[in-house]
Amino acid sequence: MKSKIILFTISLFCSSFLWAQNRSPIVIETQNTSLVFAGDEGGKLYQRYFGKTLSKETYAKLRNGMEAYIGAGMEDVFEPAIRMVHTDGNPSLDLRFTKAETKKLDADITQTDIYLKDPVYQTEVILHFKAAFKSNVLSSSTEIINKEKGGVILSNYASSMLHFDASNYFLTQFHGDWAREMDQQESQLTSGIKIIDSKLGSRANMYQSPVFFLAPNKTATETEGEVIAGTIAWTGNFQFVFEVDRTNKLRVISGINPYASTLTLKTGEHFTTPEFIFTYSANGKGQASRNLHTWARVYGVLDGLKPRMTLLNNWEATHVKFDQEKLVELFDGSKKLGLDLFLLDDGWFGNKYPRNDDKAGLGDWQEDRKKLPDGIGYLVKEATKKGIKFGIWLEPEMVNQKSELYEKHPDWVLKLPNRAENYQRNQLILDLINPKVQDFVFNLVDKMMTENPGLAYIKWDNNRFMSNTYSPYLGKDQSRLFIDYTQSFYKVMQRIRAKYPHLGIMLCSGGGGRTDYGALKYFDSFWPSDNTDAAERVFIQWGYSYFFPSNTISSHVTSMGKQTLKFRTDVAMMDKLGYDISVDKMTPDEISFSSAAIANYNRLNPIIWYGDLYRLVSPYDEDRAVLMYTDSTKNKAVLFSYNLNLRKKQIFGKVKLQGLNPDNEYTITETNLIPGAAAESPENGKVYTGSYLMEIGLNVSPAKLRPLSSIVLEITSK
User: Fold this and answer.
1) In 10 A of CB 274, how many CB atoms?
2) Euclidean distance between CA atoms 655 and 369, whole angstroms
3) How far apart are the first and last CA of the chain?
4) C-alpha distances in Å from residue 241, one per residue of 276, 352, 439
5) Strand, helix or coil at 363?
6) What is the overall mean pLDDT for the chain?
7) Which of 248, 271, 260, 211 is nearest to 78 (CA)?
């Protein structure tokens, strides 16, 4: 014990010496945002500032602050960022600053690594920060290294700890359930702890979404107020902790949910947490969204700056009842509408146990010989003949009990010993932690692509969360199950992407079950909800739009709901357009409208996918929703206006536009009209300056208001 005290004293002296040599603050900076750390003479690291970019002289004058990454078991009695039990049983961690290193990863991204060390126990913690200069987005992850002569136990291991000192704090969270995803809810934080988390394992985002807004002092609007937007790049259990202490200071701790996930690190072992991604805006939630969208298209999403295909899905037309002749007939619908791809959904596989409903076949990924006697290759060739591409549905992580796979490998399934199996949608989850199961999933995709090189798209589903969870592969020590499953999922996707780097894959998880930037590194889009009722989708897509760019949010025209085809189409066009509809049941007029709408979308989607999004009127505030996209030159914009369930003789005022050049003159043109119908917009054909449109506003509603109606306007600089 004396030797440890001597070592601590020497270490403390060295830390003081280092700070005497270099008292410069550690500044993590983007174009408009700064996160500043500095230390005291004892070597403790403090967060001094987070907010608008300041002058370099000001950074050196900053004082006070809160300890940057607090270890449990010492003097601080509030929620820690990290808790460790050392080899000798000591449950404390005292982290001191040793050094900071900064390097450029590319022209836009700077990485800062801050090294912390316990002077007695030699445990090292590295805080990794990345700053995307142009988009004003920061990310934080934590690397923990055990250098003791035995195992240490980690029970908390946050990706980020941020501190705030304000008079009030307002939290906007997003929650829901299947078919009602991303409900927006705002509340004021009060003394104590507020936790947003998930314990669902595989389909982790089903009830609580891993995103939030935090507004210090007062509530933020779209255009005004300070706000922080945060999300976690992790496709598993997550946790956000918001704790207001006795002095009204707030700490926000973000990362993997430590629930049932105590980690033991062996000597020399490293553990790195997923990235917490966040941005600061002094100009409301809208600017925070645009920051995240700009960052995501370059860094967060697979091929975020490349075009997407517009597809027709067969699910609504056939469900699982089809044969190859019927599918080839449906290809004509894709061609008629002018679409890029036909997607074959569930029901194409299984022979001993054919997939004729959701009770059998899952896991037996061979073509059903009765439905598809000539196999997938025949469908790919027939689609190619008709000038479209072909895609297919998979649910590789799941299995039905009634399947050959389950019969051969009951040990490949996550299930508790000595307990009854627990089913959701008649299925169980494969033990993806098992390397043999990882090989099975990779080989499924690889074999399908090798045998059918023309296959152009995969819809990757995941329709249940974890329950009665136990990994036969892990055996008695189940402490890493939730973490290992997610990391194993990433390992499989890394193998797939190494061989098929640009294959289009939609991340579907029963709708909204996996919507995070951990998975989107490997997927180009996600399915936000199985609820495709267009009136409901206005709210659902509105919520997702805060954190994800439009080209990642798949939105299909279906026959769900009682709205007109135009309304359903206009809602789907605000994001990544697709179709899941029985084209053979559409009238000639409906086909004519839809093919014209798709042509419009193909012309306008560069603005929708890559432009700046401005949410102008929220459906939470009025019985309508209005939003617009503006291209980077501010010469072109597309505005969507949706009237929802209106009251009799309801009146809507003008809407002030955003993101235009005040000196330019803009022509207003209503588009996406029903063929032969006159424009409904009273502003159609008129010309206004950008200044007028942004200061006075535009009448975006038709002269006669109708519930569940919509208008799409092109705004073009002369």
Assistant:
1) 25
2) 57
3) 79
4) 13, 49, 37
5) coil
6) 96
7) 248
**Cα(239)–Cα(396) distance, integer angstroms:** 27
- In this predicted structure, what is the pLDDT of residue 22? 44
**How confident is the model at residue 328, as a pLDDT?**
97
d(C-alpha 113, C-alpha 337), whole Å: 52
Distance CA 540, CA 543 (A): 5
**Which uninterrupted H or E stretch holds 187?**
strand 180-188
Handedness of CA 291, 295, 301, 303 (dihedral sign): positive
What are 497's two structure tokens?
A: 């992407």
Tens digit of each residue's pLDDT (9 = 90 or more) over 148-187: 999 999 999 999 999 999 999 999 999 999 999 999 999 9
* Residue partners of 476: CB distance under 8 A and separation at least 6: none
Q: Which two tokens stand for residue 542?
A: 């509105």
Strand partners, 245: none
Beta bridge partners of 643: 624, 709
DSSP string computed for 254-275 = EEE--TT--EEEPTT-EEEPPP
The candidate with the shortest Cα–Cα distance to 37, out of 85, 94, 102, is 102
- The Cα–Cα gap between 279 and 140 comes to 11
The fraction of the chain above a pLDDT of 90, given in percent, is 95
pLDDT at 10 over 60: no
Amino acid identity at 571: V
DSSP state of 585: G
Alpha-carbon gap, residue 121 to 18, rounded angstroms: 20
pLDDT digits (tens, 9 = 90+) for 482-527: 999 999 999 999 999 999 999 999 999 998 999 999 999 999 999 9
Output the DSSP codes for 36-69: EEEE-TT--EEEEEEEE---HHHHHH----EESS
Taking only the tens place, the pLDDT of each residue in 236-282 is 999 999 999 999 999 999 999 999 999 999 999 999 999 999 999 99
Q: Is pLDDT above 60 for 11?
A: no
- Asked if residue 403 lies in contact with residue 364, where contact means CB atoms within 8 angstroms, the answer is yes
**Mutual angle of helices 375-385 and 324-337, in 10-degree steps:** 30
Strands of 263-265's sheet in order across: 82-85, 152-157, 263-265
Are 630 and 660 in contact by the 8 Å Cβ rule? The answer is: yes
- Amino acid sitting at position 564: T
Q: What angle do CA 401, 405, 408 make, to 5 degrees?
A: 100
